[in-house]
Amino acid sequence: MSGLKAGDQFPADVTFKYVPWTTDDVKVCGIPTTLAASKDWADKKVVLVSVPGAFTPTCSANHVPPFAAGVKELRAKGVDVIAIIAPNDAYVMSAWGKVNGVRDDDVLFLGDTETQFAKQIGWIGAGDRNARFAAIIDQGVVKYAAKEEAPGVTVSGFDAVLGAL
Q1: What are the chain's domains?
Q2: What is the distance between the alpha carbons of residues 135 and 4, in angstroms, rounded to a whole number?
Q3: Whether the Cβ atoms of residue 14 and residue 37 lie closer than 8 Å to each other
Q4: pLDDT at 24
Q5: pLDDT at 72
Q6: Which of these, 18, 59, 86, 113, has the minimum number of CB atoms within 10 Å of its CB?
Q7: Is 29 a catalytic residue?
Q8: Tens of pLDDT, residue by residue, the chain (165 residues)
Q9: Ranges for the Thioredoxin domain (predicted)?
């Protein structure tokens, strides 16, 4: 597969790892669990954002904060699930969500372990990282998908996603 595009069915059997929220304490973490995204998101409107890595400069300063701050705006557009993925493990993603002041009922911070999903759709970034991209999936159908072709956050950023909703 060469990326996602509007009109595509969201791929089958997509899973991510995450740690369900239990406390705001970054030093305390629950047990990782598997999210069967293809199944769990089949009847939902989802904003999926991929970043090259948790705690990296552009991701932490420019990409994730607007999504964390814009939960109400996205919900007002009918979004059921807001998910951030990165090639980090579930523990790191949990800590990153907490540092961003986000609970998993607002934004899911999911590990795309070994870039499995990014590889499945062909959107791999530099090295062994995910590419920076965003998608809107509605009832299992991709409505918007855009991958950054240059450094920075434009087509995968909050404003672009909000505008596509």
Answers
A1: 15-164 (3.40.30.10)
A2: 8
A3: yes
A4: 75
A5: 96
A6: 113
A7: no
A8: 578 999 999 999 999 999 998 877 877 888 999 999 999 999 999 999 999 999 999 999 999 999 999 999 999 999 999 999 999 999 999 999 998 888 778 999 999 989 999 999 999 988 889 999 999 999 999 999 999 999 999 999 999 999 999
A9: 4-165
Contact between 83 and 108 under an 8 Å Cβ cutoff? The reply is yes
R_g of the chain, CA atoms, integer Å? 14
Q: With contact defined as beta carbons under 8 Å apart, do 130 and 51 qualify? A: yes
The first and second tokens of residue 70, run together, are 């814009």
Render 46-60 in DSSP notation, one character per residue. Answer: EEEEE-S-TT-HHII
pLDDT for 127: 83
Name all contacts of 122-127 with Cβ < 8 Å and 24+ positions apart. 122/1, 122/2, 122/3, 123/3, 123/4, 123/50, 123/147, 125/52, 126/52
Q: What residue has token string 């995910």?
A: 130
Contacts of 81 (CB under 8 A, 6+ apart): 41, 44, 45, 46, 47, 108
Q: How many residues does the chain have?
A: 165
- Token readout for 149 is 């072709």
Tell me which of 59, 83, 134, 136 is the catalytic residue: 59
